[in-house]
Amino acid sequence: MTTPFDDDPHPHRRHGRFAGLRASFLTGIVVIAPVAMTIWLIWTLIGWFDGFVLPLVPETFQPKQYVGNNLPGVGVVIFLIFTVVVGWIAKGLIGRSMIGFAEGLVDRMPIVRSIYSGVKQIAETVFAQSDRNFEKACLIEYPRKDIWVVGFVSTSAKGEVADSDSTGEELMGVFVPTTPNPTSGFLLFLPKKDIIELEMSIEEAAKLVISAGLVYPNAKDPTAPPDTED
User: Fold this and answer.
1) pTM score over 0.90
2) How many domains does the chain have?
3) Which long-range contacts (CB under 8 A, 24 or more apart) does 110-114 make?
4) What is the pLDDT of residues 149-171, one digit of tens each?
5) pLDDT of residue 224
6) Is residue 29 part of a domain?
7) Largest CB tally within 10 Å, which of 5, 19, 60, 198?
8) CA 106, CA 104: separation in Å to the nearest integer?
């Protein structure tokens, strides 16, 4: 017979149950967190688009005139349709003429010209359909010897950068992203012989950088090449 003041006769069983509950809770968090964050992000973007687009739509075309309230996502649909129409017009002769005329006006405005050109370059780099993409993921020694970082090979150096190299070797542009925000980083020009190309894809290398080295291309065996995973 035991009393509440006696020692627990099965301490390992109690600790084992607690550890099991803790493991189940953490597993549930791992399962729920990505789904919840994805839903929250999508819902937030939809709300942002609706709040930005719907006030610009005439009252006659507002969904609330017909169904009583504005349905979530209507602003996104209107934005997509408007963007497709603008892109279709811009590809034609009249559209190109209008864009040329508008850009001519912008070029006469000192401050607006700088802002417009910067935003245009960013938009063309991110959204334009072209071959200007990173070629391979790589390893380079940076910021000093025997310290290795993951980088992305962009293209070979051209123009004044290539002509200024005194070694006579081919220079390659390498973008070294920061962790966990890969949109910022450093642009380096290195001799091609100093770059070690990796077998992993650009997406896999980006995951490695964003996760601070926790997510490898092969979860089962990180030392194996990506194409040998079972």
Assistant:
1) no
2) 1
3) none
4) 999 998 888 888 877 767 677 89
5) 59
6) no
7) 198
8) 5
In a domain, residue 218? The reply is yes
Residue 199 lies in a domain: yes
For the chain, the residue count is 230
* CB-CB neighbours of 49 under 10 Å: 19
List Cβ neighbours of 155 (8 Å cut-off, separation of 6 or more): 132, 135, 172, 173
pLDDT at 129 over 60: no
* DSSP code of residue 226: G
Specify the residue for token string 């194996």.
224
Phi then psi for residue 138, to 5 deg, are -150, 170
d(CA 200, CA 196): 12
Residues whose CB falls within 8 Å of the CB of residue 226, separated by 6 or more in sequence, listed in order: 199, 200, 201, 204, 217, 218
What domain range includes position 143? 136-228
pLDDT in tens, 203-216: 899 888 888 888 87
Residue 158 lies in a domain: yes
Q: In this structure, what CATH number is given to the domain that contains residue 164?
A: 2.30.30
3-class DSSP state of 141: strand
